[in-house]
Design goal:
alpha+beta, Alpha-Beta Plaits, 4-stranded antiparallel beta sheet, globular, binds ligand BES, binds manganese (II) ion
């Protein structure tokens, strides 16, 4: 039976199974959900067994476990390693969801007339990870698995994959592969398949500005002491200049500048600025001078405040000068910026921006290295042919602005390239309220993935 017919025949069950997985709130960031995260790893273990993996185990790590599974049909054949994550982002602000984040519902939308599954993790990444489990089911049930397959599904991606380096260095042999296959990104549009050829790196920091040693009456002290919130805002404002360039000395030194030809190639991807603005309800786009929207969100580094707090934020008014103000700041990085170095440059610069009236503390969080992959590799070619089979179109290579730090780590530790076959859409609201994943996209993913295995094995011969 071909993949199309198999998916048609089993689609209802595929959707039901994903819905069950989405009901478990596997929020890795919040320790209150520890049991649920662990329960999810067990659900993934069972799913891999049911789909036909021979060896399945829950591997303990210093953090949340990694679910490993494999089916080795013949050690002389190529091996594909599938990576995905079973943890999800916190759902808040919960009040902005139209339906509860862990009670999945299917609703149709303008972009998804066949329906989309609304739930936290629907697209990022339970839905996309589960496509691979169901693709394996098809291949084993129909005697269509042409090579060896390994699965590595982690539970800490959304908090920086802290245990992964540890796991990789301990399990090099076990994870050995010819190519890594990941669905944790997106595609341009349903009628425009694309393969992600780049990811940005990341440096995530938290800053704390301390003024007076206690909260003060803003009438008695206001104007006479530094207000840490005012100062923090002022310091943050200085991080960009009038052209929206980042002002940290040395920040751009190692940035890989694309050639005019490469930029012209990128500009061929279908995009409407007007549509973009309309969908986000903004009067105008905003960003670094001299670059287009698609360049700003993929090949250029950025700095954004992700959260800022301090002082009184409850009901009504309270006249107070807070003792402390805080912000969380992320910097998205591009090849060949080194995130450790960027974190250091940020720290030095931010500390020296502070006036003597306050103390400032910069706390580095996690980070990751950017990634790019060529389009002439066997893995890319196999993926391209797989999309041609099921979409009838050659996919467009596209660099994404998001980060999956493990991908650069895979290259460093396992010397393997990752092929990023994403089936989500930018409008699927990952990390936001009302995250969803189109039923069509989900099923199309399951249909397309087995074609990758066939082409990859053929090309390897
Ligand atoms: N799946 C996303 C990354 C992504 C989404 C890449 C869409 C490209 C397109 C991943 O789960 C994620 O959210 N990564 C984090 C970084 C991580 C270190 C917390 C991110 O990009 O913010
Ligand atoms: Mn993800
Ligand atoms: Mn994510």
């Amino acid at each position: 039976m071909n993949t199309r017919s198999y998916v048609d025949q089993h689609q209802e069950r595929f959707i039901k199974e994903l819905i069950e997985l989405l009901k478990i709130p596997s929020i890795s960031a919040d320790p209150a959900y520890k049991e649920d995260v662990l329960r999810t790893s067990e659900a993934v273990e069972k799913a891999l067994k049911d789909a036909g993996c021979d060896q399945v185990e829950i591997c303990e790590t210093p953090g949340y476990p990694i679910v490993y599974g494999e089916k080795i049909v013949d050690p002389t054949l190529p091996t594909v390693l599938v990576y995905g994550h079973y943890d999800v982002q916190p759902p808040d602000p919960v009040e902005l969801w139209d339906s509860p984040p862990f009670e999945p519902v299917i609703k149709s939308t303008e972009i998804h007339p066949d329906g989309a599954i609304f739930a936290r993790g629907a697209c990022d990444d339970k839905g996309q990870m589960y496509m691979h489990v169901k693709a394996l089911e098809y291949m084993t049930a129909n005697n269509q698995l042409p090579c060896n397959i390994k699965f590595m599904i982690e539970g800490e991606e959304e908090v920086g994959s802290e245990s992964l380096e540890w796991f990789l260095t301990k399990n090099r042999e076990k994870l050995a592969n010819d190519v890594i296959l990941i669905s944790d990104t997106g595609m341009i549009a349903k009628e425009t398949p694309s393969i992600t050829t780049g990811l940005r790196g990341l440096s995530y920091v938290e800053v704390e500005v301390t003024g007076p040693n206690r909260d003060l009456h803003s009438g008695l002290y206001g104007g006479a002491v530094a207000n840490p919130i005012n100062i923090l805002c002022d310091m943050i404002a200085q991080l960009h200049d009038e052209n929206n360039h980042i002002t940290i000395p040395g920040f751009y030194d190692k940035v890989d500048e694309l050639s005019q030809e490469e930029r012209a190639e990128m500009a061929k991807a279908p995009f409407s600025q007007e549509e973009y603005n309309k969908k986000l309800d903004i009067a105008q786009e905003h960003g670094e001078k001299g670059y287009t929207t698609n360049e700003r969100n993929s090949i250029r580094p950025t700095l954004d405040v992700n959260g800022i707090w301090g002082g009184y934020t409850g009901e009504g008014a309270k006249t107070v000068i807070a003792s402390k103000a805080y912000a969380k700041i992320s910097m998205r990085l591009v090849p060949d910026q080194d995130w450790h170095e960027i974190t250091k440059l940020f720290k030095e610069h931010f500390e020296q921006l502070a006036p003597p009236s306050v103390k400032v503390l910069v706390k580095p969080h996690h980070g990751g290295t950017a990634y790019v992959t060529p389009i002439d590799s066997l893995g890319y070619q196999a993926a391209s042919k797989a999309y041609e089979d099921t979409f009838g179109k050659t996919p467009i290579p596209q660099r994404s602005g998001g980060s999956i730090p493990i991908v650069a780590l895979f290259e460093k530790e396992l010397q393997s390239k990752s092929i990023l076959m994403g089936f989500g859409l930018d409008s699927d609201a990952i990390h936001s309220p009302n995250e969803h994943f189109g039923v069509w996209n989900y099923l199309k993913g399951i249909e397309t993935i087995p074609h990758f295995y066939k082409h990859f094995t053929d090309l390897k011969k």
